[in-house]
Design brief:
- It is a single chain.
- The protein has 235 residues and is an alpha+beta fold.
- It is built from 6 helices and 14 strands.
- Strand 2 and strand 3 form a beta hairpin.
- Helix 1 packs parallel to helix 6.
- Bound molecules: adenosine-5'-diphosphate and magnesium ion.
- Adenosine-5'-diphosphate (ADP) binds next to strand 2, strand 3, strand 7 and strand 12.
- Pathway: Purine metabolism; IMP biosynthesis via de novo pathway; 5-amino-1-(5-phospho-D-ribosyl)imidazole-4-carboxamide from 5-amino-1-(5-phospho-D-ribosyl)imidazole-4-carboxylate: step 1/2.
- Pfam families: SAICAR_synt.
- Keywords: ATP-binding, Ligase, Nucleotide-binding, Purine biosynthesis.
Length: 235
């Protein structure tokens, strides 16, 4: 049975069987915690395909994800997880909120990378959390956070390598995790909505920052398409 059981800004969740869901990627593109919204034609297909390729790549590299297969071109079959409403961000190069929040300059390199936690709460603009908050809200204990961080680092190695093969650089990315039994595995999506990717030679942006910065939807779509077609050639 396929009943709608959840819906967010960019995906719908349908029940599939007792331990799987369908994730249907919509054509919606949003920024500013949903304050700016548009329809970018075919975006759902592009993002579903991008996610599928990256999840398969991670699985081949021994990283557990919720990915099972594709139901149609914009719908993923995934293991049903009890999602943890936290965005885990890994930063290799400074850009975005961190350069506004802290005395850090755009383009500064983090070696080792910096990992941050944010509560998924649009009305509060996704406040940052530390281990005490994670524990207090019963989101993750410290041991689980350490597991999550080691997964973030391994995902970073794999993603960075593949993106370099495409001639680009991975500035940062966000993952969402969920529980399956007593394991915590990678869920949600990995797309240009959730990563920052730039051309290191020209500084050209390929990710959702194009939309955040007000570029027209045609420019945004062409960047998403170019990234996917280059990804298809290297994975
Ligand atoms: N494997 C999964 N099992 C169950 N729910 C999932 C899974 N992967 C992602 N989700 C959920 O799908 C919902 C829709 O995603 P999305 O549209 O990106 O939401 P949001 O607007 O909160 O970012 C989210 O609540 C997310 O937690
Ligand atoms: Mg989302």
């Amino acid at each position: 049975m396929e009943t709608l059981i959840g819906e967010g800004k960019t995906k719908q969740v349908f029940s599939y069987d007792s331990d799987h869901v369908l994730l249907r990627f919509k054509d919606t593109i949003t920024a500013g915690d949903g304050a700016k919204v548009d329809i970018m034609e075919n975006k759902g297909v592009i993002n579903a395909q991008t996610s599928a390729l990256i999840f398969r790549l991670l699985e081949r590299n021994g990283i557990r994800t919720h990915y099972v297969g594709m139901y149609d071109e914009r719908t993923m079959i995934a293991k049903k997880l009890k999602m943890i409403p936290v965005e885990v961000v890994l930063r290799n190069i400074a850009t975005g909120s961190i350069v506004k929040r802290l005395p850090i300059k755009e383009g500064e390199i983090f070696d080792p990378p910096i990992i941050e936690y944010f509560l998924k709460d649009d009305s509060r603009h996704d406040p940052m959390l530390n281990y005490y908050h994670l524990e207090y809200f019963k989101l993750m204990n410290r041991k689980e956070a350490e597991v999550v961080e080691s997964v973030m680092m391994r995902v970073n190695e794999v993603l960075r390598d593949i993106i370099r093969k495409m001639g680009f650089e991975l500035y940062d990315f966000k993952l969402e995790f969920g529980r399956l039994g007593n394991e915590i595995i990678v869920g949600d999506e990995i797309t240009l909505d959730s990563m920052r990717v730039r051309d290191p030679k020209t500084g050209r942006i390929l990710d959702k920052d194009l939309y955040r910065k007000g570029y027209d939807l045609k420019t945004v779509k062409e960047a998403y398409e170019e990234f996917l077609s280059k990804l298809e050639k290297v994975v």
